[in-house]
Amino acid sequence: MILIIGFSILNKPSQEVVNNTQNNADSAVANTSETDESNESDQLNKTSGLYAKYSNDLKQYENKDIILFFKADWCPSCRVIDADIKASLSDIPENVVILELNYDKETDLKKKYGVTTQHIFVQIDTNGDMIKKWSGGNRLEDVLNQIK
């Protein structure tokens, strides 16, 4: 009987050690998961600019450099720069908004900005007033270097 009581007393602390070790391991896994989620959240919250379809609600881009990109799906050079911009979205500075427009359909805006060919970029302010216009460029970097 003494042996059984002694055995259970001796066995009890080791059970607590196992439980504490398991709790510490669970905490470590939870902390690692929280860290991973935090890193993912930081990456998702990383501010970068925008490449989107044109919207005439330009006031939403207050204090941003707004670039209009007149492109056509049938235009080979437009496809090249479009692909590069899409591959480099995280490289667009947070103060830059590039808005793509369908060259074949946006006749009023083409007329307003004097756009006569595709693959044209126009920098505007939130009132829609032109700041600068240029043609060409095959990389996002080329576009960003033109911004005033």
Please, could you describe this protein's structure?
With 148 residues, the protein is an alpha/beta fold. 47% of the residues lie in helices and 20% in strands. It has helices at 2-45, 76-87, 107-113, 140-146, and strands spanning 50-53, 65-71, 96-102, 120-124, 130-135. It has a five-stranded mixed β-sheet with strand order 1-3-2-4-5, with helices on one face. It is globular, with a radius of gyration of 29 Å. The termini are far apart. Mean pLDDT is 79; it is low at 13-46.
The description of the largest β-sheet is: 5 strands, mixed
CATH architectural grouping of the largest domain = 3-Layer(aba) Sandwich
Task: Please estimate the helix content.
Answer: 40-55%
Shape estimate: globular
Query: Could you name the CATH class of the largest domain?
Result: Alpha Beta
- Sequence stretches where pLDDT stays below 50 over 5 or more residues: 13-46
**Number of domain modules:** 2
Order of helices and strands: HEEHEHEEH
CATH-defined topology of the largest domain = Glutaredoxin
Give the strand tally: 5
Structural class: alpha/beta
Strand content: 15-25%
